[in-house]
Design a protein that fits this description.
Elements (H helix, E strand, L loop, with lengths): L1 E8 L6 H16 L4 E5 L4 E13 L2 E11 L4 E12 L10
Antiparallel strand pairs: 1-5, 2-3, 3-4, 4-5
Length: 96
């Protein structure tokens, strides 16, 4: 089973759904070993690039990604770290 943590620094007023869309594109790029993936959505467009470095943020270490995002109002870079972890089958992560 795979799971992970994500830290996002977003200077744009993107919805939580759009931020998750960027993370999904980053995961797609990572698993397809693509250096970048372009996107063109109704409210924004741009490109997600996988960094070559693993970055530490306090005790959190993850793969660095940068999304160059263009909205009708302005453009900015969205930076985020993604850490993937593997769990043994049967390990409880959280209970409702």
């Amino acid at each position: 089973m795979r799971w992970g943590f994500v830290f996002v620094a977003c200077p744009l007023p993107l919805s939580e759904a759009r931020r998750l869309d960027l993370v999904r594109l980053a995961a797609q790029a990572w698993f397809q070993e693509a250096r970048e993936i372009a996107f063109d959505w109704d409210d924004c467009d741009g490109v997600v690039r996988a960094g070559s470095d693993v970055v530490a943020l306090g005790t959190f270490t993850g793969q660095q990604f940068v999304a160059e995002v263009n909205t009708p109002e302005r453009s900015a870079a969205v930076h985020f770290l993604v850490a993937e972890h593997h769990l043994r089958p049967g390990v409880v992560v959280a209970e409702a």
